[in-house]
Amino acid sequence: MRRPMPKDVQELERPRQLTLRKPDPTDGAAIWELVRACKPLDENSMYCNLVQAEHFRDTCVVALLDDQIVGWISGHMIPNEDALFVWQVAVGPDARGLGLARKMLTHLVERDECADAQRLNTTITRDNDASWALFRSFARQQGGRLTDDPHYTRHDHFDGRHATEHMVTITLPRHADQARAA
């Protein structure tokens, strides 16, 4: 016979389920809302996120905590190069502090579709401390080297309306070693 529990004893919460997967077009609206909630990320159109989720799904990642999208990485293989370009990394407020961004990056570079990537590229403004910390941490985890150079400059590319974006390059040595071994 089961004894009744006192009213002041709370039931244990079940562990939250984290899932990383490729997006699909039905995720587009939720991705768009997530990006909007992650300032200072540039807000693209919802249509852009729909196209990314469909056309570039092999090089994008959504993270779900239970069944809610809480993380997003958009990226693509740079045509005619051995590089994966990461466009945006978004982690919603409910999922911060879990190391989710680095988990998503690792998940992405380990996909078969990214096997030819010998480096990862992204652009970051100088004042985006969170992104610098993420990509430095990722480079250390991968055993890669991180370099950066001004790429899209305030005056040459943004007509003075946006800070210079630095092209960050991270070598992916274990991926290069795997490609040589094959």
Précis, in short:
By secondary structure, the chain is of the alpha+beta class. It contains 5 helices and 7 strands, in the order E-H-H-E-E-E-H-E-H-E-E-H.
Per DSSP, the total helix count is 5
Task: Describe the sheet with the most strands.
Answer: 7 strands, mixed
Fraction of helical residues: 25-40%
Q: What is the typical, i.e. mean, pLDDT?
A: 89
- Order of strands side by side in the largest beta sheet? 1-2-3-4-5-7-6
Question: Please, could you describe this protein's structure?
Answer:
The chain has 182 residues and is of the alpha+beta class. The chain is built from 5 helices and 7 strands. It has a 7-stranded mixed beta sheet with strand order 1-2-3-4-5-7-6. Strand 3 and strand 4 form a beta hairpin. The longest helix has 14 residues. The protein starts with 17 loop residues before the first strand and ends with a helix.
Features:
single chain; 182 residues; alpha+beta; 7-stranded mixed sheet; 5 helices; 27% strand; globular
Secondary structure layout plus pairing:
Elements: E1 18-21, H1 28-37, H2 46-55, E2 61-65, E3 68-77, E4 83-91, H3 100-109, E5 119-125, H4 129-142, E6 146-152, E7 165-171, H5 173-181
Parallel strand pairs: 4-5
Antiparallel strand pairs: 1-2, 2-3, 3-4, 5-7, 6-7
